[in-house]
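W.,

You were right to be curious about this one. When I first looked at the sequence I had no strong expectations either way, so I just let the prediction run and decided to look at it fresh. Below is the sequence, 243 residues in total, followed by the output.
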Amino acid sequence: MKFKDYKYERPNYEEIKKSFLELVDKIKNASTYDEQKLHINQLNNIRKHIETMSTLASIRNSINTADEFYDEEQNYWDEQGPLYTELNSDFYKVIVNSKFKDEIKKDYSEQFYKICEYSLKSFSPEIISDLQEENKLSSQYTKLLASAKIPFDGEERTLPGMGKYLLSEDRNVREAASKAKYAFFEEHEAEIDEIYDQLVKVRTRIAKKLGFNNFVELGYVRMTRSDYNPEMVENFRKQVLDY
């Protein structure tokens, strides 16, 4: 199946929430692991559907930000995404506190269990409005980059369309392409700075509400970096500098 053939349909949050929480309750109260596993798989199917629809909307919106339908769908996900995250948080709590955690780790992997733990650290109902603001700012930045129309080599080019010129074997072409590309960023410097400023503020606010010192700490948790930490990255950078 080609990407264009995948059907998109906006989920009904209230209907999803009802089915989702019913399954969370069944997982929580399962008397055997087989029963719990059955309901986990059922819930994962719902989660996969939600993630698929969200991804389809995001990609199609980024391909053409002038498409009014997917622009509106991206607005929907910017608003509703944190509410779906809240549902996932209810699921993760049950998994982390399951009396069958050893069986869960064996069937779904240690990493799945760690993802549940990390996801709980990176979310609280208290930050839902902040996450919605963060989503909107990220979408605003995506739209700004997608709006680029850079005159080069006789045509208007997008930022991705400049790629082959930036990698040209001809140094003069690379230089001209770089100047053309960064002229776009200079032209929109004020907008980019404003988005960046607001993102720093909202992400710092989110991190503080969740008990982190700063967004860097939260960033590692969000990316579920369970196998390495900032100290290890610092050491890696030092080795790059030294060697």
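Here's what jumped out at me. Residues 82 and 131 are 6 Å apart (CA to CA). And, maybe more interesting for your project: The radius of gyration is 22 Å.

Coffee later to discuss?

I.
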